[in-house]
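Incident review: delayed structure delivery

Summary: a single-chain prediction request sat in the queue longer than the usual turnaround. Root cause was a stuck worker, restarted by the on-call engineer. No data loss occurred. The affected request and its eventual output are reproduced below so the record is complete for anyone auditing the incident later.

Affected input:
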Amino acid sequence: MKIKETGLVLFLENYEDNVHFYTEKLGLTIREKKEGLTKLDFGGSYLMVENNGVSNTSEKNRSQNPTVIRIEVEDIDEAVGELKHREVQVEILKFNWGTIGVIIDPEGNRIELKNYA
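Output delivered after worker restart:
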C-alpha cells in the first residue's frame, strides 16, 4: 500500500461555529470547503471537519470521544501566547515526560499542544 497522505475526520454538531474555531482561533488554513465539509491543513496531514456530529457542553469523556487531537509545536510558550491572544483558553499541565497545553473545542473535543521533541 502506498500512502498518499494521512488525515483525521472530526464530526461536529455545530459545524460552522467549529470551522470558525479551527480556522480563526487555532489558525488552521482551509484547503478545501464543500457543503458540510471542510479540509484543513494540519502540519503535513489534514484535519477534516464535517457536520452530523454530537456536541457536549464540557470536555467529552473517553467513552464519548476516545481520541485526542495532538499538535506538536516547536515552542509551547509561544504557541500558548498566540492562542491566548486569540482568546483561546489553554490549560498548562506539567508531567515528568513534558508539558502540554490542553484546549477544549466548542463541542467538547480535547486538543493538546506539546513541545516538538
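Verification: Strands lie at 7-11, 30-34, 37-41, 46-50, 69-73, 91-95, 98-104, 110-115.
Action items: add queue-age alerting; document worker restart procedure.
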